[in-house]
UniProtKB/TrEMBL annotation, chain A:
It is found in: Cell membrane. Residues 85-278 form the ABC transmembrane type-1 domain. This is Carbohydrate ABC transporter permease. Pfam families: BPD_transp_1. Keywords: Cell membrane, Membrane, Transmembrane, Transmembrane helix, Transport. It is a multi-pass membrane protein.
UniProtKB/TrEMBL annotation, chain B:
This is Multiple sugar transport system permease protein. The chain crosses the membrane at residues 12-42, 75-97, 109-129, 160-182, 221-244, 264-287. PANTHER family: BLR7065 PROTEIN, SPERMIDINE_PUTRESCINE TRANSPORT SYSTEM PERMEASE PROTEIN. It is found in: Cell membrane. It is a multi-pass membrane protein. The keyword Transport applies. Belongs to the binding-protein-dependent transport system permease family. It comes from Fictibacillus halophilus. Residues 71-290 form the ABC transmembrane type-1 domain. InterPro entries: MetI-like, MetI-like_sf. Its main location: membrane. It comes from the Bacteria. Keywords: Cell membrane, Membrane, Sugar transport, Transmembrane, Transmembrane helix, Transport. Coiled coil: none annotated.
Length: 292, 298
């Protein structure tokens, strides 16, 4: 082993030969983190620092004023900000839970059951990994209109439930579970449903965590449903409200910047926390993500 | 479909039903409808009338904006952001795999974090940074350094908008594909490397080409498909940054925006559907290239 001069992947401890990688990675990581660190500071700046010229990167006298303003603000039609946040939280929770259940169920069937069309369905799903929802926004709109979903709460939820990448990842993950285990449970008299709940779900927790994150990012950041399918202001989401702040940021409206930064932070922080909590599960799932 | 292997076992369908219902409703039917509508004239009020290939012919021969701006823009954007972001993801994943775990986790988290909220939410930050007057961060920085004499309207200028879009999208492109490749690099058996060196590989570059990439083809393909989709998904960024559709002098106009312009602003649904179909075909062709490079079967 000591004579081996090549790359040492996944080293267990630090060695000075790793410095060259760090010399490349650390500056890049800092550069990539800058905009995020920047919103963080910006969100806590008092008004005179927002207006300061030349603009400063760091905040000197942090204040929660921007958050207070944001929470007490109502939009043009009198809908309070908290309403948008409430909508977003409810929609996100429902979508994440349902997506996880639906994908895991389908993944179980595609991985462990034998039936005709099994292969075909999985291949169609793999093809659908390439699907770009924005490309079919017109027919989607017409369909949603036809189904009577315009201006309903459901329109935020239903279109996001089938997530090809979620099914793909969970199916690959369930493939790792040995058939013998399920066979043994079946001999002990477990029903299909019991096998699914007692064996599959506990064993695929990492994949479930991953789908949950991906689905969370999709729905929490989504503005499409609010901007296209909903006219009723009270039914719109926080991410949409936040995107309307963008237009007011243009030009000299510096006061709006503090609000926008505070809103960005509210958008960003949940993503970050969830990812930090679940990151090892995600990496575990990604090991099985390959398309073969 | 009714004939089952041995006994009539409907259980797979019970587990699959919810997924298939939503998948069909919100993915298959819209794609099929886009294809059908693309052969019609449809203004969202009257019933669609069949007009054959006219929409496609019009798109190629009469839509000057499409041929002169949209298509070149989309291809430039896609060719830089797609492969660029992908190669960057791979290099970062490869370098990250060679530092110890704790450091790697922190760095990977930072590099991944822009992709979590990339897109519209982050457009706010970028509009402040690239703000057009002297209080914009970039302007202020360049003015103090003496690079500029007067502020530039970055996001309203046809000259810079596209470059900024590419930059911002690349910044946020280390997403799921990046994570997949990172775990791909980490899971390669070290013995393969040792064997490779015995077989005469003598530098890092050869090592990447002959060992690393071939050993993680499935993750490479997954990453590539994610890169392609991410690229075409990012279409809204130009409109979000400049705050207008169409973007100033169509400088940042991509196919997705053109589609939205015809569909929801001009209500030419049939024509918009034809653009959809062309877009889906472009995405498919890009993915096909990835499949050729890294797929294990064809």
């Amino acid at each position: 082993m000591s004579a081996f001069q090549g790359t040492r992947m996944n080293p267990s401890k630090f060695h000075k030969s790793q410095l060259k990688f760090l010399a490349f990675l650390i500056p890049l990581a800092i550069f990539m983190a800058l905009p995020i660190v920047y919103i963080f500071f910006h969100a806590f700046k008092p008004i005179d620092e927002l207006f300061a010229y030349p603009p400063r990167f760091f905040v000197e006298n942090p204040t929660l004023q921007n958050f207070v303003d944001l929470f007490t603000k109502t939009n043009d039609t009198g809908v309070p900000m908290s309403r948008f946040l409430f909508n977003s939280v409810v929609i996100t929770l429902i979508v994440v839970v349902l997506t996880v259940i639906i994908s895991t169920m389908a993944g179980y069937a595609l991985s462990k059951k034998n039936f005709r069309m099994k292969k075909a369905i999985f291949e169609i799903n793999t093809l659908a990994l390439m699907f770009v929802p924005a490309a079919v926004m017109i027919p989607r709109y017409l369909l949603i209109d036809e189904l009577g979903l315009i201006n309903t709460f459901l329109v935020h939820i239903l279109p996001l439930l089938a997530m090809p990448i979620g099914l793909f990842l969970v199916k690959q993950f369930i493939d790792q579970i040995p058939d013998e285990l399920l066979e043994a449970a079946r001999l002990d008299g477990a029903s299909d449903f019991q096998i699914f709940v007692r064996i599959i779900i506990p064993l695929v927790k990492p994949a479930i965590a991953t789908i949950a994150i991906l689905s969370f990012q999709l729905v929490w950041n989504s503005v499409e449903s609010s901007s296209l399918y909903v006219n009723d202001e009270g039914l719109k989401t926080f991410s949409f409200y936040m995107s309307t702040l963008t237009s007011t940021v243009e030009g000299n409206n510096v006061a709006g910047q503090g609000l926008a930064a505070a809103a960005s932070l509210i958008m960003f922080v949940p993503n970050l926390i969830i990812f930090i909590i679940l990151q090892s599960q995600v990496m575990n799932t990604m090991a099985h993500s390959g398309i073969k | 479909m009714k004939k089952k292997p041995n006994k009539r076992d409907y259980s797979p369908w019970m587990f699959l039903a919810p997924y298939i219902i939503f998948f069909t409703t919100f993915i298959i039917i819209p794609v099929a409808a886009a294809i059908l509508l693309s052969f019609t004239y449809f203004n969202a009020i009257e019933t669609p009338t069949f007009i054959g290939l006219s929409n496609y012919v019009g798109l190629i021969t009469q839509d000057e904006v499409f041929m002169q701006k949209i298509l070149p823009n989309t291809l430039t954007f896609a060719l830089i952001v797609g492969p660029g972001g992908y190669i960057l993801s791979f290099i970062l994943a490869w370098a990250l795999a060679q530092v110890p775990k704790r450091m790697r986790t922190v760095l990977a988290l930072i590099i991944y974090s822009p992709s979590m909220t990339a897109g519209v939410a982050m457009a706010v930050v970028w509009t402040i940074i690239f703000s057009g007057d002297e209080t914009g961060y970039l302007n202020s920085l360049l003015l103090t350094m003496g690079v500029l004499l007067e502020p530039i309207q970055w996001l309203q200028s046809p000259e810079y908008l596209m470059k900024i879009m590419i930059f911002v999208t690349l910044w946020g492109s280390m997403g799921v594909g990046f994570l997949a490749m990172l775990s791909g690099v980490l899971n390669i058996n070290t013995e393969i490397y040792e064997a490779g060196y015995i077989d005469g590989i003598n530098n890092r570059f050869q090592e990447i080409i002959y060992i690393t990439i071939p050993s993680m083809k499935p993750q490479m393909l997954f990453g590539a498909v994610m890169a392609v989709v991410g690229t075409f998904q990012a279409g809204a960024i130009g409109v979000a940054l400049s705050g207008a559709n169409p973007t100033p002098q169509y400088a940042g106009q991509l196919m997705v925006n053109h589609l939205e312009d015809y569909g929801f602003i001009r209500y030419e649904m049939g024509y918009a559907a034809a653009i959809s179909v062309v877009l889906l075909i472009v995405v498919y062709l890009f993915s096909k290239v990835a499949w050729r490079l890294f797929g294990e079967k064809d």
